[in-house]
Amino acid sequence: MTHRQRISMIAVMVLAALGLATTGAGAAAAAPRAQAPAPAAVISTPVTGTFTDASGGTGAFAGTFTPTGFADQDGSLVATGTLTGTLTDAAGTTVGDVDQSVTTPAAVAQATCRILDLTLGPLHLDLLGLVVDLNQVHLVLNAVSAPGNLLGNLLCAIAGLLNPIPNVGTIAAILNLLLALLAQL
Q1: What start and end residues bound the annotated signal peptide (predicted)?
Q2: Tens-digit pLDDT profile for residues 36-78
């Protein structure tokens, strides 16, 4: 594995740790604000899909999305990049190639919040002849924040009350910085 591949893998893990994932490859109607310049080389994400071909059969799209920047568009995080790929019809014949710039919404993926991490050392109790010996206990409680997880959402919100909440523009700036760093490798 080359140095560039290692750094790229680290960047992917950082993005995954931030919990950000793209949610589609459709073009957005309005242009994003505060767009960073496009880096030379970045990580590509595979994109696949289906369509109805001219004969009424199901064709396939296979390609990649290469992000070139992130922005705050009307309070929502969007990713702008290049979508490249090939369209093949139901018979397996190449119908066309795609190489176009697209803007797509980016969403925050499922998050886990540490609620409690408690370690109790060994314990020895002698209660009037009843002896209780307990080895070390390590209790970890995590809340999972996701749609439909009412208690997990509530506990994550409470656990994060004192943490500053970054706005969409700040998240876009951080992601653009990561893309710029990758381009310098």
Answers
A1: 1-27
A2: 444 445 688 899 999 998 889 999 999 999 998 988 888 888 9
Q: What CA–CA distance (Å, rounded) separates 178 from 23?
A: 19
d(CA 80, CA 53): 27
Total domains in the fold of the chain: 2
Q: What is the rounded CA–CA span in Å between residue 109 and residue 171?
A: 14
Q: Are residues 10 and 62 in the same domain?
A: yes
Choose among 67, 78, 62, 12: nearest CA to 39. 67
Please indicate, yes or no, whether residues 94 and 31 belong to a single structural domain of this protein: yes
Q: How confident is the model at residue 10 (pLDDT cuts 50, 70, 90)?
A: low
Residues 8 and 84 in one domain: yes
- Token readout for 119 is 């370690």
Cα–Cα distance, 43 to 46 (Å, whole number) = 10
Pairing mode of beta strands 111-120, 94-108: unpaired
